[in-house]
Amino acid sequence: EAQVTQNPRYLITVTGKKLTVTCSQNMNHEYMSWYRQDPGLGLRQIYYSMNVEVTDKGDVPEGYKVSRKEKRNFPLILESPSPNQTSLYFCASSFVGGTGGEQYFGPGTRLTVT
Amino acid sequence: KQEVTQIPAALSVPEGENLVLNCSFTDSAIYNLQWFRQDPGKGLTSLLLIQSSQREQTSGRLNASLDKSSGRSTLYIAASQPGDSATYLCAVRTGNQFYFGTGTSLTVIP
């Protein structure tokens, strides 16, 4: 089954404790992306990757890191989480040939930073 | 920077009614526009993708149109059902980035 998986689905942590949210897709998509969703602000893009070893900042990259060492995986790293990073996080992937294909989304990771 | 707006923010209709959801964007240089459905606390489910060269796409009771020059898209839902109740989001690809509207929350009353 074609899918995007994220782990963990729920995470409660404390300020300053480094964490990683994993994302994996099995559709051989070149493009992968991370979003955060906050009430009233909608989904905002954090980082994206056009292919292996190619990453770039989205609109809200501060406080986050990413890496793309394999085509299928795109982990999101919070090196020193703060309460303002409490949010619902989504990973997505798509083909980028031509004008691009459908984005497929993971189930989301609800992060709470206390 | 691309700005995407969805109006109305919330909509309540009786079952069986046809309805239109609106999405507008400020920069017409888009590659594609995608409509999604999101149920409370859940992920996003893709409904329709319209490429920049297309005018509309249809899937079952859903029809999405795109007018790039005026920066508008509409999602038409025919014969609405209670199961259509959800938040509907539109997203545009501009360059290598995606921009989302804040959604329209739809309630279909039985």
Structure summary:
With 114 residues, chain A is mostly beta strands. Chain A has no helices and eleven strands. In chain A, 0% of the residues lie in helices and 50% in strands.
Question: Could you describe the 3D structure shown?
Answer:
Chain A has 114 residues and is mainly β. Chain A has no helices and eleven strands. Chain A is 0% helix and 50% strand. In chain A, β5 (42-51) and β6 (54-57) form a beta hairpin. Chain A starts with a strand and ends with a strand. Chain B has strands at residues 4-7, 10-14, 19-25, 32-38, 44-51, 56-59, 62-67, 72-77, 86-94, 97-100, 104-109. With 110 residues, chain B is mostly beta strands. The model of chain B has no long low-confidence stretch (mean pLDDT 96). In chain B, the strands form two sheets. In chain B, strands 2, 4, 5, 9, 10 and 11 form a six-stranded mixed sheet that branches. A five-stranded antiparallel sheet of chain B has the order 1-3-8-7-6, with no helix packed on it. In chain B, 0% of the residues lie in helices and 60% in strands. At the A-B interface, β4, β5 and β10 of A face β4, β5, β9 and β10 of B.
